[in-house]
Amino acid sequence: MFLDLHTHGKLSKKSDFSLAYFKEMLTEARANNISGIALTEHFNTNNFGQIYAALDEAYSYNGHYYEAEGVRVFPGMEVDIRETGHILLISTREEILSIREQLEPYLSKDNFIPFAQLLDLVEERNVLKIGAHPYRSWTPLHHINVNLLKRLDALDLNAKDLYKQGITAYQAKIYPFAELLGLPIVAGSDSHQCLQYGSVINRMNESVHSVAELRLAIQQGAYQVEISDSLELRVKASVMMKKLLKQLQGEPPSRDEWDQVVTT
């Protein structure tokens, strides 16, 4: 079973959720032999609740994941923290929507939730906690208190950072950091656009059917992280396509899109 644990269902935070666009994403995921994804959309994206309302209407949900276009879609969310950095939360639909409701006071950049408070909020729940792109230049995690970081379940080996900083150079940063924290590393494409699927992937030794099974597999190391030989092409094409699509919608490129395109 191939899993991607950092994906997005929308082109950007400002865009509305489009089921047709999401179906295209899933079709491409399936074409890359991906049988499961974590849908970790930004918690402060435009109309967050609309995403799950649309999924409920279009697909069956078994209490653990949606069965969508032949892909298991595990509910999730990417949360900004006050110290700077992003945390991926993966759980059931009910837990994700409940946590999102409690994060309502913390949606703006000047009032993101403190990391310790977020951890306290989710640790008593059935939630997988992953530190997203810990060495990304504008949203790092490596500067945060080590004892707080050790409360995470894993760190994210992110396709965008492998592309931007170089595969060997980035691995030389994140793997010693993960060892210091005693945390495993899992792969996430960080796809907002379908061409990025397959750039990095988790090859699970056995099929997983719930967040509890996923957490156990990660803890036991029952998976392998695989990096595609075509990662650079996939990510660059995806970033450029996303930038073009946003221009067509009248949106300016985000910091990562502009930075990645002009430096390559």
TrEMBL record:
Where are the bilayer-spanning segments? none
- Where the record annotates domain PHP, the positions are 4-92
What Gene3D superfamilies does its record include? Metal-dependent hydrolases (3.20.20.140)
Question: Do you know which Pfam families this protein is assigned to?
Answer: PHP (PF02811), PHP_C (PF13263)
- Check the record and name the PANTHER family matching this protein: EXONUCLEASE, POLYMERASE_HISTIDINOL PHOSPHATASE N-TERMINAL DOMAIN-CONTAINING PROTEIN
Record protein name field: PHP domain-containing protein
Organism for this UniProt entry = Paenibacillus shunpengii
Source species taxonomy: Bacteria, Bacillati, Bacillota, Bacilli, Bacillales
